[in-house]
Amino acid sequence: MYPTTLTQIARANPFSAPLFTLQKVEEPLQSHKGQRSRRLAAAATVDEGDSCEFGSQKYFILCGFGGILSCGTTHTAVVPLDLVKCRMQVNPDKYKSIGNGFAVTVREDGVRGLAKGWAPTFIGYSMQGLCKFGFYEVFKILYSDLLGEENTYLWRTSLYLAASASAEFFADIALAPMEAAKVRIQTQPGYANTLRECAPKMYAEEGLWAKMCKLHSFYKGVAPLWMRQIPYTMMKFACFERTVEMLYKYVVPKPRSECSKPEQLVVTFVAGYIAGVFCAIVSHPADSVVSVLNKEKGSTAMQVLKRLGPKGVWKGLFARIIMIGTLTALQWFIYDSVKVYFRLPRPPPPEMPESLKKKLGLTE
User: Fold this and answer.
1) Which of 8, 233, 252, 353 has a Cα at 20 to 30 A from 326?
2) Is the pLDDT at 247 greater than 50, yes or no?
3) What are the transmembrane regions (predicted)?
4) DSSP codes joined into one string, 196-222
């Protein structure tokens, strides 16, 4: 009964890896006293001398700190490109291309004008990174424990999707006020030049907890932000995790256990860039809506979507692919580097549990 039923389930799962092309892994999973089983994917081997237990409070705190560094610094670094992208979305007649957008901005505002919105970008995306990466680790372990070891392996990509979506829901609530301020500074000439000017003005107009349907609320864009960021993050984490598996299995010319930490971080960077390209594509229409919505008065997400049309929502896609691809690769690289620096547990890509192999008749 078990072999037939489980085989059908595994083959029917569109996210599962091939179950019958297993390779013998020479390195056994190392365990530490009091440490939970390491079942989930990451871009490195398990080393001795970890500074904390996998899934401990210290582990989650340091993962959140890694998220702050990876998201806050990278998003701030690409503010000039983000500014031009936003202006192309809300005023395509004036900002016709990336090059033209940079030229017009420098001509009107000077070189310093390219840095507009850096403060809300740094604060907002630092808070988002804290929640995104920190809660992802929490939900990944939580859902894995609920599923059990065998189902965690069979449905691991579904688990990555669910954990990342759950984390991003809270991350966007942390990001929304600063995202609204950033877009206002970048796309409304004369409204405000700094966060210190923008935040009091926005608060005076509506108040922090104004309803989403009212004008210019700090949280006016949270719903379309969910539309943009949740698919983006689901793709970011699930595609990254599975790409890491594929790279070690089909591309890296030597076993993972023989790769040095710098080589493992290169795998992290490559997998992050591949994931970033797909992230940009799936989230771009909602990103266009968010940019216009935070600029205009009296508009709803559906009204903006209808007005932009099928062609308008893809305006600025090339710039976003460049920005998000590089951004995502750097974020994963920084995040994994933080884990290396603090000697956090970094589980290897998942392997089929022995109990499942026996049920499937793959071992004697």
Assistant:
1) 252
2) yes
3) 265-286, 317-335
4) HHHHHHHHHHT-TT--TTSTT-TTTTH
